[in-house]
Amino acid sequence: MRNVAVIGVGMTKFGELWDYSLRQIFTMAAIEALEDAGCSNRDIEAFYVGNMSAGLFIGQEHLGALLADNAGLKNIPAMRVEGACASGGLALREAYLTIKAGEYDLVMVGGIEKMSDSPCTEDVTTTLGAAADQEWETFVGLTFPGAYALIAKAHMERYGTTKEQLAMVAVKNHKNGKNNPKAQFRREITIEQVLASGIVADPLSLLDCSPISDGGAAVILASEDMAKKFSDTPVWILGSGQASDTLALHDREDLTSLKATRLAAEKAYTAANMGPKDVNFAEVHDCFTIAEIVATEDLGFFHPGGGGKAVEEGLTEVDGKIPINPSGGLKAKGHPVGATGVAQVVSVVEQLRGEAHKRQVNRAETALTHNVGGSGATAVVHIFSR
Ligand code: COA
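Above: the input record for the complex with coenzyme A. Below: its predicted structure, written as tokens.
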């Protein structure tokens, strides 16, 4: 099995990108990644793109060929990978496996979503709801904010996690997003503002939620030989793990933890021959504030029930024991769902190269990304090092 590195990264600003179409957004990210890698579009042998639902959001399917063509990746194998909000992370993993197995040497991985062209928030909620269990959840009115609200309630009841602790996740991630020029929200917020921001699904308020976003991201993966040819600063993928679980929450053994995350993390840690203590910082899937708390427990950074206290004690700040989401996370950086898993890799590579400026984590040598689909039916974890 061969070693695989990330040698180029690119992403657009996240937010409401009214002036650009889906293909323009992706092409901007792809060009940035190619330039960063110092290779040409003609060098790329295959293309995988993560996208959750361009079909429902803007009526466009068949994204592999469309986006490859627009990015100048002519006539190569090109395909879309879908796993709800984990689509980007899954695309990365598929590309990684093909290089590891020896099929390709240079592959582009993309992630893209255009959510803000939907006429209203209700339409976005319906489209996102297609990733939940239609018969048992969506049909009876459960939305994703609703699903994560159930997880939050269970966590609060079992561990005493408070609404203030949830709010602290949003406050921290907005503080980090302020230092990220590509983040959707670059303003700080207070605990009081989060608590007063209006209930979306009790106990989650508007500022506990990731926003509706447009955005694209791209990374170039390379085999060891190609990485050495093109890059002085390759970032190695040491481990990759993926797992799935039931779509419907009522079929889960436990609502306070995502089993798919725990299993995916176990595989990634084993492959990297590392444990949670060896990870210097992480970009985790904070689609709602409770999701970050649960993720930090499932990934082994804190004991079950310890995630809320850890935020309160500042352990997850950029200068804390284990910085979580120094990019601003989904909460502040934005969450164009299919792009998120790839954008997390962009953030990690910037950090590991020491190019994250005001949000730079000290002595960042190893990192973890965690990308979740739906309310935890898909999870994918990657571990990186300089
Ligand atoms: N965080 C911070 N600010 C937000 C925000 C968020 N999540 N969502 C909206 N805002 C801001 C807007 O920028 C706007 O500010 P402005 O008045 O200064 O321009 C204001 O709040 C109202 O925005 P609006 O678009 O009217 O909000 P909305 O009520 O239509 O939508 C949510 C708010 C929370 C319902 C929506 O963002 C949402 O559905 N988020 C969850 C997305 C999701 O489920 N993703 C998948 C996860 S699995």
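Notes for the reader.
Residues 22-37 form the longest helix (16 residues).
The mean pLDDT is 98.
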